[in-house]
Amino acid sequence: MKNILIAFGIVVTVALLFVAVSKAETPERITIINSGKAGGSFNARTQMYKEGLTAAGYDVRYENVGKISQAVKMFKASDEPTIMVYANNQVYKQDLFHTENNFILAEYQQPLYVCRTNASKGKVTNLTVAHGKGFDPELLTTILGNNITLVPYKNSGAMLKGMLGGDVDMMVNNQGKSFKYIASGKGSCRPSTVLPMMVATVIGKNIDINRLRSILFDISTNTPFTEYHTTRKLVRPSSTWKQELTLVHELEKGYEIK
Amino acid sequence: MNELIAVSTGLLAGTITGIVPGAGVMVAMIVASPLLMSFDVLQLLLFYMSLASMVQFTGTIPAVYLGVPGETNSLPAVIEGTKFNKRKMAKLAIGICAVGSVLGSLVAVVITYGLLSVLIEHMTVFFSNATKFYLYLFIIAFCLLVYNKKNILVNLSLCAVGFMLSVPGESDISSDFRYTFGIEDLQFGIPLIPVLIGFLIVPTIAKMFSSSNSNVFLPSIDIGFCKVIKYFRKKLVASSLRGSLIGYICGFVPGVSTVLSTNASYSFEKKLHPNNPGKLLVASETANNAGQFASMLPLLLIGIPITGSEIVLYSMLVDAGWSPYQFDNVTNNADMIFKQIVPWFVFANIVGLIVAWPLARKILNLFANSKKYMIVILSVGMLLLNTYLGILDYRVWLYTVCLIVFSCIGLLIKKYETVPLVFIFILGNDMEGVFIRQMLI
Questions:
Q1: For B33, B105, B303, B328, which has the most beta carbons within 10 A of its beta carbon?
Q2: What is d(CA A26, CA B384) in angstroms, rounded to the nearest whole number?
Q3: Stretch A52-59: mean pLDDT
Q4: Which residues does chain B have with pLDDT short of 50?
Q5: pLDDT band of A79, cuts 50, 70, 90
């Protein structure tokens, strides 16, 4: 009987030790959803966090969705620790807003660019303007004037092709595609001071927001972030979580679909 | 050595993809993605190029023997290839397609080399809305006037159904979700694969089960390779060259590329030789390969992907460290194409020619000897493919429901050619955007 108890005690001790050791060695798991297409900033930023979190010892499960609407759907349905790169210009369309429960950090602000073809220089009336389908037409006509024809395109890439193909005189596009257009030599672009700013963010769920914010902050500060046109470090609009969230809430309103 | 590994794996993947009905280059790229993560930029380009080239060769085999398109751009091969099969001349059809495909690829390389500076200067013309608008008008006319014994009413109805199926979900030009009936998965539209399986493949399989059917799995007259070359040289060179030229030009059109290449070339040839399946088959298949090469040029030269599979490739290229910022490197990119890509492209085409021939013979023997098993395998394969792609797309239940519904409708209308329906379904959303923009511009 004594021997049985000793053997039982050894087995239990070994089992407990095994559980403790295996638990200690199991890296924390986190899912990161890539909502961006190749070459875009969402994709590049997701890659950056994937590599950074892996280097920080996380067991990263990478879901390469590549489409914002499906990524948001997956994010909403997730029961596990999950993060996703996001932006304020998506919230109304995707019906997913930045809240105290999901907001991790704001990375940088980016203006929208207004580009114009060289061929249309001197043209003052009947200008055709390409815009993405998420833009508010009323806002664009208020800013660019009533004497324009708005031409809707599927996305920023389609707009760029439309400009290169000579469909339109102007386009309102993001920084990456605008820089690409400038490089083509077919026209010029300038950052808009009146169109709403785009602020890039990271959101998450089922996570310790403060801890993850600190880790992601270090990753994004220490890692050069490669986008289309340049290598740069991310610059945050402010330094505290509360201020960033307030700013994001304010900038979200610029993209409210009327 | 690394290049050879990339080309070999690309050729193998292309062979399998081509003979699996419904699977396309994009699906193959997604399935192969774990392997491709270790590839560098040049290997990725060579893998894709070999895969896409090989699919053009082997995709003809199920199209001719089974009447099932390996890819959406194999539809003309289905229509004309099955005519060869009925005459027990399937091997001749495979042979002339393979020879035509090589010729089309070589013509595309020669045109690119000769017109490189003009191409770089004017490539963006193909991005214009007007170009797409006129091409779409041409496609609609083609759909109305070519299929179902030129019965315009039937074709119009099929086109209308195809368009209606393309409408639900997110529009190309507005942020609204249309006709989703509260079903969240419909926000992304009706998936392509169940439409292809339900409206094209299921009716074909049903026809195979039909005991009165004598059009599939027929023994084919053994025709030597030299005879095929002789036949091709005597009768098909002109059609092949026409197809190469049309296919090459259409290959630059974003989104539709080789689908447009094959069908534009097919319909042009149909005007010239309406009752000559050989010329029609060769013109479309040659155009396919020429278009395939042309479609890669915007990506390789100026960093703009223009087809779905290229977007997947582009994603992998960027992950592998490729800079998509290409406008000031056009000359370097052209050098890369001719020094590092083209030799392997020619190699891949020659391998395609060599492989397609014996492979066709093997597949024919396999199908002829075990008809019922092959039908079951094909059916189960389609079901698995649909489920697998549904899982990848995170909406497996919608794929399943669509597959069941479309298969039932497909069976009910199996006596009609459903190609116009599928065509307009694939292009409908983009077509709508192009037409609206054309009115605004």
A1: B105
A2: 35
A3: 90
A4: 214-218, 325
A5: very high
Task: State how far the Cα of B283 lies from the Cα of A158, in Å rounded to an integer.
Answer: 31
User: Can you give the pLDDT at residue B15?
Assistant: 83
Residue type, A210: N
Of the candidates B40, B19, B76, B21, which has an alpha carbon nearest to the alpha carbon of residue B270?
B76
Q: Which residue of A has its CA nearest to B312?
A: A38
Q: Which residues contact B372 (CB under 8 A, 6 or more apart)?
A: none
Domains of chain A, each with CATH number or no CATH: 25-109+197-255 (3.40.190), 113-191 (3.40.190.10)
- For residue B404, give its domain range: 2-440
At A169 the pLDDT is 93
User: Residue A153 pLDDT more than 80?
Assistant: yes
Pairing of strands A225-226, A231-232: antiparallel
- Predicted pLDDT of residue A228: 35
- Contact A123/B at CB under 8 A: no
Q: State whether B188 and A67 contact (CB < 8 Å).
A: yes
Say if residues B232 and B282 touch (Cβ distance below 8 Å): yes
Which residues of chain B does A128 touch, with a Cβ-Cβ cutoff of 8 Å?
A: 440-441
Interface test mutation site (partner A, options B29, B185, B327, B435, max chain A beta carbons within 10 A): B327
Report the alpha-carbon distance of residue B141 to residue B122 in Å, rounded.
28
- B440 contacts A93? CB cut-off 8 A: no
Residue bearing tokens 């339900």: B198
User: ipTM score here?
Assistant: 0.73
Q: Do A73 and B433 touch (CB under 8 A)?
A: no
Domain count, chain B: 1
Q: Say what angle helices B419-440 and B152-166 make with each other, to 10 degrees.
A: 70
Q: Is B319–A184 a contact, with Cβ atoms under 8 angstroms apart?
A: no
Angstrom distance (rounded) from CA B301 to CA B308:
18
Q: Which long-range contacts (CB under 8 A, 24 or more apart) does A71-79 make?
A: A71/A33, A71/A34, A71/A35, A72/A35, A72/A96, A73/B184, A73/B394, A74/A33, A74/B394, A75/A33, A75/A203, A75/A205, A78/A31, A78/A33, A78/A205, A78/A206, A79/A206
Per-residue pLDDT band at A207 (split at 50, 70, 90): very high
How far is Cα A146 from Cα B363, in angstroms, rounded to an integer? 64
> Taking a C-beta distance cutoff of 8 angstroms, is the pair A38, B317 a contact?
yes
Greater confidence (B15 vs A130) lies with A130
Angle between helices A156-164 and A175-184 (to 10 degrees): 20
> Per residue in A216-244, pLDDT tens?
888 877 665 544 334 344 455 557 888 88
Residues of chain B neighbouring A149 (CB-CB closer than 8 A): 440-441
Question: In sequence order, what are the beta bridge partners of B170?
Answer: B177
Residue B371 has a pLDDT of: 65
Kindly report the pTM of this predicted structure.
0.70
User: Burial level of A111, CB count in 10 A (0-12/13-18/19+)?
Assistant: middle
Q: Which residues pair with A87 in a beta bridge?
A: A200
Side-chain half-sphere exposure of B208, counting CA atoms within 13 A: 25
DSSP 8-state secondary structure symbol assigned to residue A186: S
A38: which chain B residues are within 8 Å (Cβ-Cβ)?
Answer: 311, 314-319, 324
- More confidently predicted of A143 and B8: B8
Cβ contacts of B175 on chain A, cutoff 8 Å: 93, 133-134, 257
